[in-house]
Amino acid sequence: MNDEQLFSDPGHPVSSVRVIPRGRAAYRADAESRSVVVRHLLGYEPFTKFCLGLGVDSTHLASSVGRFGDLVRAQSDAIRADGIEDASAVFLGNVLVRLRDDASWVRYGDEFPSAGTEQHQYEVLHLLDLLMDSDDATYRKCLDMIEGWARS
């Protein structure tokens, strides 16, 4: 499957993501630093290849944080062994952005891109770690919070 078909918006490289310089509030981004609104970030292909190797259809994961979370919890050791945490986090961020029409990607300084809305951004690398490593109660609470965010 073509990764472009997983998420409806055109894919963009990380260089297209709006950067908020450190020490500045989001509402004060410089006009020259504005770029396209990125709703589909590229760079998750290693994760989709990993899924293919497991016999898992990544389109099934692209529409549900819960299905994605269940897979990465079950495969956390293999994800880390393969070094595909960044690709997995990009996939997760694209899933999050897909949940809300007002969501997109943003970068704060030179940090890994975050996904969400102007009011609530998810640091997807940290969220990935939480989904993979938390106990069952924390995992369920995290999914509930994301589902609440998606409905708001």
Q: What do you see in this structure?
A:
By secondary structure, the protein is an alpha+beta fold. It has 7 helices and 4 strands; from the N terminus they run E-H-H-H-H-H-E-E-E-H-H. The protein is globular. The termini are far apart.
Principal-axes shape call: globular
Please estimate the helix content. Answer: 40-55%
Our Rg estimate from Cα atoms comes to: 15 Å
- The string of secondary-structure elements, in order, is EHHHHHEEEHH
Number of helices: 7
Which structural category fits the helices and strands?
alpha+beta
The strand count comes to 4
Q: Give a short account of the largest sheet.
A: 4 strands, mixed
Task: Note the beta-strand portion.
Answer: 5-15%
Mean pLDDT: 90
